[in-house]
Amino acid sequence: MSVTPLRIFMTGVGGQGTLTATTLLAKAALLRGLPVTSGEIHGMAQRGGVVESTLLIGLKSPKIGPGEADVLMGFEPLETLRALIYLKPGGAVFSSTESTPPLSVSTGQATCPGLVDVEGRVAEVAGITGWYPCQSLGLQAGAAQAGNIALLGAVAASGVLPFGPDAVAEAITANMKPKIAAINLKALELGVEAAKA
Amino acid sequence: MSNPLIAGKAGETHLLLGNEAIVRGAVEAGVQFVSCYPGTPSSEVPDTFFRLSPEADYYFEYSTNEKVALEASAGAALGGARALCTMKHVGVNVAADPLMTLSYTGVPGALVLLSADDPGCHSSQNEQDNRYFARLGGLPVFEPASAQECKDMTRTAMALSDELDGPVLLRTTTRVNHLRGPVTLADAEKAPAPAGFQKDPSKYVPIPAFARPMHLRLLERMQRAMELAETSEYNTVTGSGTVGVVASGISRAYLSDALTLSGLGDKVKVLELGFTYPLPEQLVLSFMKGLTKVLVVEELEPLLENDLRVLVQTTGLDIEIFGKNTLPRYGEFTVGMVEDALRSVLGEAPAVRPVNPPEEGLPMRPPNLCAGCPHRASYLTTRKVFGDEAIYSSDIGCYTLGILPPLKSADLLVCMGSSISAGSGLSKATGQTVVAFLGDSTFFHSGMTGLANAVYNQHDILVVILDNKTTAMTGHQPHPGVEKSIMGDNESRVIIEDVVRGLGVTEIRKVNPLNQKKFTAAVEELKAKSGVRVLIAEEPCPLFARRAYGKKPQVTAYVTPEYDMSEGVMERVACPAFYQDDDCRLAVNELLCAGCMLCVQQSDNIKSKKKGDK
Ligand SMILES: Cc1ncc(C[n+]2csc(CCOP(=O)(O)OP(=O)(O)O)c2C)c(N)n1
Ligand code: SF4
Ligand code: SF4
């Protein structure tokens, strides 16, 4: 099957559910019959380190090198900024605006760029950008962890993927227990609405 | 609900992790015996086998270390069973002794060894290339590049081992273990019950007289393996031209994407190797006919490259070979790197690939001991008593994260189990004070032998066994000493204290490190003594305790207005639940606080309350 190749780089903080979001997106792509590969680097995930993952459509390599990602999804703004090197200049960036500062920052030993700076840097290199208060959207849906799914909703609604939010919704329904699925479906919807707003 | 990895039917397609696909491949091959020692990036293979064991027919065990795991699988395969043994790359070092002779004796059943290599050292102390072991020992090798191949090659490797009566290596790399892709299932085979061991010392007891003919049989087996590699479905030739590319393992994915994205696909002839060793020489020679240049794309060591150079030299071909002169011998490749190597061999300029400059000066986010981790308490106290002068001989586990300031309690580390033995040698040679730290799983893995050695050779060392009741680092697997696993109680516990006593240690203390007063007293007492002393710091990992013991934190710490920042608890304890509030004062994030009460014991002005209370 010939599809336009697409490379998505995702980044977040351990414990945020970055990998759950990646797998859901991959399942959504598979539901639409797309040739999909995803990759993840764990190991340190539980200990508050950075978690990076990839999703590729029409390609086989689970790794994305510097300048190779068409889309960058950041579940935490500092990590979005750190991962900017993977974005193809002019590519699309979708990110949470709500930060989880590293310990050195939260204990006042280091500083971290503020959201305005982060957004400014991203705007210099990205063609498309979307910023969403993901954790808040997740909380509104019923659980902070569902914030990732809100970001998936926003990305799927933006038209940069070869499928829409309906495919993600199907993947949620097919793979989660009804109660958790309900929360995530709500989060997805909130993300879609935020993207349209 | 039955799991598709066990109950799935032929033709179904599922999105699987590479490691899950390996499980399914083994199930399809009728695996009967699975042993392992966990280690990233291999761990989801044994963990999945473990989780699914109640609904499956195979026997599964977490063994105490990789040597034991391989010997257990070897015994099963010697009795005619189909066995799979899994480990990370450095585990094969531990298992190397049985491995090198197992290929001599062979196995009447089947035995596949999974070696999960880690180019790029994502979660390892080195990036050794275990394809060398296959050459050293004489094992055929399969190297998958997709989830589908993880399944298919596991199955084929088992069938090949069955056919050749020798062990087969399934070699993956981190990216392969941790990729996800669609996998179409085939039906699972039902293997006949193991035939039982048939006595024949000339085949199974490698005394010198028998070992010599065994070696000849091994060489014959490798010859047969080479013939099978010649026609393997995993070794394919595509494209045409005078420039060739040979790629193996995950490099095939990088190459495929480079060709798709660069449009160079019609300029090169490609040989993909999935059954990579022994090298199918006839296939390679026929591939090289008419070529003037060949680029070999393989991560880490130039093994295929050197094999090709030998082949070109012995057959007098006039072909220029490119490999490690165009691509690095360390770390992982990227699609862009492979594309540029290809361009340079084709005589083209590298692609212009604009890249955003890296963001400088961003605060790092290193992995850290979790809030409430008992290791933090052990380190804090030991350091307080021993200070900067003592040498902290560390080992491998979550507790290695104690390397970070402010705990700084890892000064040297070689490999699993080295804390006691390397620490003993160091103290003997230099007279320096040495404190060794190792985890409970590491103690059973390879700490016990070092401890026996320390007792026997009268070394001077304080050994702190950080007994958090689980193998935390690699995903909370059980080991002989645990009380519980996710499957329930451990009914045949091996008690660490009894082992330590049995090994001849007389100075033993067992204390919960979260009880700072008692723990400090124990450390001070043992500091005042000499010889081999063991302190068992016993307290479950809170993450594991939540899952296996159903233990949820009931209390949280809070900082009272009387707390003075100069008390320095924030800097000394550095718990991830700490933060600085808007007034630049220490505060505790109640959501993150695990209620371990370590900080509460450092200052009268930090107190505890029930979670949720104002
Ligand atoms: C030879 C070898 N096998 C496996 C590993 C992977 N590994 C790293 S840490 C670890 C377990 C450590 O468990 P434990 O000693 O109980 O410490 P914890 O993580 O629980 O603190 C393992 C298996 C390794 N590094 N080397
Ligand atoms: S997982 Fe457990 S042992 Fe490892 S750092 Fe966290 S609390 Fe400590
Ligand atoms: S009690 Fe103190 S040290 Fe323990 S987890 Fe809570 S904040 Fe951290």
Can you offer a commentary on this structure?
The complex is a heterodimer of chains A (197) and B (614). With 197 residues, chain A is α/β, with parallel strands linked by helices. Chain A contains 8 helices and 6 strands. Chain A has helices at residues 18-31, 77-82, 103-106, 115-125, 134-141, 147-158, 165-175, 178-196, and strands spanning 6-13, 36-41, 50-57, 69-74, 87-96, 128-132. In chain A, strand 2 (36-41) and strand 3 (50-57) form a beta hairpin. In chain A, helix 1 crosses helix 7 and helix 6 (147-158) packs across helix 8 (178-196). Chain B has 4 domains: 4-230, Thiamin diphosphate (ThDP)-binding fold, Pyr/PP domains (Rossmann fold), CATH 3.40.50; 235-346, Rossmann fold, CATH 3.40.50.920; 374-549, Thiamin diphosphate (ThDP)-binding fold, Pyr/PP domains (Rossmann fold, 3-Layer(aba) Sandwich); 555-610. Helices cover 37% and strands 19% of the residues of chain B. Chain B is built from 22 helices and 25 strands. In chain B, the strands form 7 sheets. Chain B has a 7-stranded mixed beta sheet with strand order 3-2-4-5-7-6-12, with helices on both faces. In chain B, strand 6 (141-142), helix 8 and strand 7 (168-173) form a beta-alpha-beta unit. In chain B, helix 2 (18-28) crosses helix 3 (44-52), helix 4 runs parallel beside helix 6 (96-105) and helix 16 (374-386) packs across helix 20. Chain B is globular. The model of chain B has no long low-confidence stretch (mean pLDDT 97). Strand 2 (36-41) of chain A pairs antiparallel with strand 8 of chain B, so a sheet runs across the interface. The structure holds thiamine diphosphate (TPP) and iron/sulfur cluster (2 copies). One iron/sulfur cluster binds next to helix 21 of chain B.
